[in-house]
């Protein structure tokens, strides 16, 4: 009996594997400020690491189907956008069945779904800038069948005029391209270890993101604490340095006190890890 070889998998299956791996790596990364990780539940009463893993695995069929839809339609356009919307909503339902109604990965389905589809459209052109540009072109199209729920993101958009997950994708994931990925590479070059490089990438994303999860839970005060605290850790030398670690601990305590969970930043770290692995992998 031969073990299954990687190239026996279809392109769609490989992309779904990569997306789920990115979600599991994000969940396991520790210590993340106020987020679910190996240490505990962060600022969440209804989440834990096992649930994050189960949720990530439940999304594999949706990611595979999104990649297959991209291969079938073969170009950026409304038919692909609306197929992704339908599959994304089915993915959300699978997530809610697995988590008994808790939103674990709504933002991640959106970001990773777009990126998986963008990679499947043109696997030979998957540099970070090429794949995020294609994803943005899909995100800019209007899905006529999308319901308009008064989501937390929609509520803080009304209250504070914040730009959330939709705009992040439509702009081509600037938090990933301009913050997360450059920091990931910089910290790797300093040879402080992969886990610290990933923590630094998360912090870099947090420095500038309008995380609607934080805004909904803790308002502009919480968002400012998140952005300034993350910058302070990086300024102190990042999560591998002693002073950086102390600042990271302080940021964790501060965000926990404010009930401010940076769930959007966590989703974008998963997107960052996915894009990082994509380059040259297909
Ligand atoms: C276009 C959609 C993204 C919908 O957007 P909208 O803003 O209307 O919806 P939300 O559900 O509020 O936000 C989506 C999630 O995106 C994450 N996020 C937040 N800010 C940003 C940001 N600036 N950039 C990128 N991503 C961001 C965030 O996800 C994390 O937060 C989750 C928990 O959030 P919340 O529900 O508020 O839960 P709690 O505060 O914990 O609730 P309580 O405990 O208080 O009750 C966390 O798990 C992370 O996932 C936002 O939640 C898109 O989703 C959409 O249209 N979907 C429809 C299907 C579709 O078209 N799919 C396309 C497939 S490609
Ligand atoms: N690790 C995490 N903790 C809480 N919410 C999240 N949303 C996505 N990843 C998360």
TrEMBL record:
The keyword Electron transport does not apply. Its EC number is 2.4.2.52. Belongs to the CitG/MdcB family. One of its GO terms (molecular function) is glycosyltransferase activity. It comes from Pseudomonas yamanorum. Signal peptide: none annotated. This is Probable 2-(5''-triphosphoribosyl)-3'-dephosphocoenzyme-A synthase. HAMAP family: MdcB. It comes from the Bacteria.
């Amino acid at each position: 009996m031969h073990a299954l070889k990687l190239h026996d998998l279809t392109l769609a299956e490989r992309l779904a594997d990569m997306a789920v791996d990115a979600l599991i790596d994000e969940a396991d990364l520790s210590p993340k400020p106020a987020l679910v990780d190996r240490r505990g539940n962060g600022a969440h009463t209804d989440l834990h690491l096992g649930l994050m893993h189960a949720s990530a695995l439940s999304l594999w069929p949706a990611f595979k189907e999104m990649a297959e839809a991209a291969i079938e339609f073969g170009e950026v356009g409304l038919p692909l956008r609306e197929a992704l919307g339908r599959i994304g909503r089915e993915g959300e339902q699978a997530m809610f069945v697995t988590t008994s109604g808790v939103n674990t990965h709504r933002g991640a389905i959106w970001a990773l779904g777009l990126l998986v589809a963008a990679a499947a459209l043109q696997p030979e052109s998957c540099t970070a800038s090429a794949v995020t540009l294609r994803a943005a072109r899909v995100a800019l199209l209007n899905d006529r069948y999308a319901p308009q729920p008064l989501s937390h993101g929609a509520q803080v958009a009304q209250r504070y005029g914040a730009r959330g997950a939709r705009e992040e994708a439509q702009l081509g994931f600037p938090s990933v391209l301009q913050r997360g990925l450059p920091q990931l590479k910089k910290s790797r070059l300093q040879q402080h270890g992969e886990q610290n490089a990933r923590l630094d990438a998360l912090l870099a994303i947090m420095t500038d993101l309008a995380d609607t999860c934080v805004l909904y839970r803790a308002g502009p005060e919480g968002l400012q604490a998140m952005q300034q605290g993350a910058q302070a850790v990086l300024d102190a030398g990042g999560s591998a340095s002693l002073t950086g670690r102390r600042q990271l601990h302080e940021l964790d305590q501060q965000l926990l006190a404010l009930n401010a969970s940076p769930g959007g930043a966590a989703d974008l770290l998963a997107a960052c890890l996915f894009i990082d692995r994509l380059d040259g992998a297909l």
